[in-house]
From TrEMBL:
Homohexamer. This is GTP cyclohydrolase 1 type 2 homolog. One of its GO terms (cellular component) is cytoplasm. InterPro entries: DUF34/NIF3, DUF34/NIF3_sf. A divalent metal cation 1 binds at residues 65, 103, 224, 227. Gene3D superfamilies: NIF3 (NGG1p interacting factor 3)-like. NCBIfam families: YbgI_SA1388. It holds the Pfam family DUF34_NIF3.
Amino acid sequence: MQAATLIAQIEQYAPKALAWERDPIGIQLGNPNQEIARVMTTLDVRPEVVQEAIDLGVDFIFAHHPMIFKPTRNLDLSNPQNKMYADLIKHDIVVYAAHTNLDAATGGMNDWLAEALKLSGVRPLVANPDGKTGMGRIGELEQPVTVREYADFVRDLFNVQAVRVIANDLERQIKTIAVLGGDGGSEYPLAMQAGADAYVTADFYYHRAHDVLADDFVVIDPDHHMEAIAKEKLVTLVKQWQKDYNWNLIDVIASKINTDPYTYI
């Protein structure tokens, strides 16, 4: 099948119109008219992920984070990032990214996170006019738990050594939880206004954390890499499309590379 067939289905599921205006989503590299047979999903497109794709005979990388956030200034192949682009071209690998459009889509990133966080009655945190799509999600736990208990659960869920907790009282009971995958620090006032007891997001800024304490709110930051949950979810999604539309794909696999840039010591 052509890459364009998969791309069209992705864009039906997560319409590009849902993305933030400056988000460089869509095809990142390659020819959409190319025939593809093996798809690999990933959170990030890094040199080690590309090498993994080459080793496994992958010809389409389906990523969450765009490969090129800032334009490259040259194509000096002694630079590992530039060499990665050359390797992709050399091995005829198409790269496609669905980022904030997948975040906002119904059944997308933030719904996956809300499900993993055991939330029910889930609705968009920042809803679009349709009332169904939008950034972030908010919902309720089955039973109240303490901040400490929920932070432990979040740490284990996302398989990180530690989470950053911003709270005046770790023994406070919480039940209504908001979540926004990735960098959602600036949206914490919206989580408060929506009635959340606590907010799960990443990349929380130091001085903003002081504002959270002053507001007597609760934030749990498990690291941006929590979005790696998308790898297996995207595999499931593409396999379902393969079944529904009788696509002639050999395989759909998730990258096994951990692209989290942080080491906790």
